[in-house]
Amino acid sequence: MSPDHPRTLIVMPAFNEEESVGDVVREVHAKLPGATVLVVDDGSRDATSTVAREAGALVATLPYNLGVGGAMRVGFRYALEHGFDAVVQVDSDGQHDPDGVPALLRELEHADLVLGARFAGEGDYRVRGPRQWAMKVLALVLSRTSRTKLTDTTSGFRASGPRAIRLFAQHYPAEYLGDTIEALVIASRSGLVVRQVPVAMRVRAGGVPSHNPFKAAAYLSRAALALVVAFIRPRSTYRVGSAL
After folding, report:
1. How many helices and strands, by DSSP H and E, does the chain display?
2. CB of 51 closer than 8 Å to CB of 21
């Protein structure tokens, strides 16, 4: 891990992930021994909290399902209150390889928010149909907004530095796709520097995918709506004191 980020919090949103969360926590501890792991159990109906705690993670258990955005806001608030320098979101289903975290942290030396890009030359992850079209449009629009080339704006594998932690502790969106698209717009409009690094994705180690064929069919319209909502909100909404 980068010596400039000795206080790194790995935040893992988890909803009914008892099959995989224990192994993912242990893998993160093995590959990133300096990091702290916080599993945010997002209202699971299974033994996710128990399994994560037994694997050695800190666990925040939400009383009901808020979605990834709500769970991540809990993680950012924890990081802010406990003085962490960086927050890295890692999926609890095993799709995000912890081996990619050091590259995200190294890029944080030049940016406030770093995306792990799945279509930038690493691995063989592919999407087709409406999701692919939506991702290309979003990448084009959000590259202009963030003033840097982005190829994967819906990736949840991302690292946030101190300025992003302060911003997202108050303003991380909980709506569908808000944790990816709207969060990126908020960061860009708040003056944060956004970058991406290539990462490889893995198949799920267990649990139930958050996207089914019906959700995939509605992806394009929802993505467009999320983008519109992000841009129509006043820029002043996102100010956090004078630190940003």
Report:
1. 9, 7
2. yes
Task: Phi first, then psi: give them for residue 193, nearest 5 degrees.
Answer: -90, 125
Alpha-carbon distance 27 to 32, whole Å? 8
| pLDDT of amino acid 242 | 46
Q: Which run of H or E residues covers position 49? A: helix 48-54
**CA-derived radius of gyration, the chain:** 17
Pairing status of strand 86-89 against strand 158-160: antiparallel
Rounded distance, CA 73 to CA 173, Å? 8
| Cβ-based neighbours of 121, under 8 Å, separated by 6 or more | 198
pLDDT tens string 151-209: 888 889 999 999 999 999 998 887 766 788 889 989 998 999 999 999 887 765 555 55
For the whole model, what pTM was predicted?
0.84
For residues 9 and 146, what is the distance between their CA atoms, to the nearest angstrom? Answer: 25
Note whether 61 and 81 are within 8 A (CB).
Answer: no
HSE (CB half, 13 Å, CA atoms) of 220? 11
For 155-217, give the DSSP string: ---EEE-HHHHHHHHHH---STTIIIIIHHHHHHHTT--EEEEE--B----SS--S--HHHHH
Report pLDDT for 140. Answer: 87
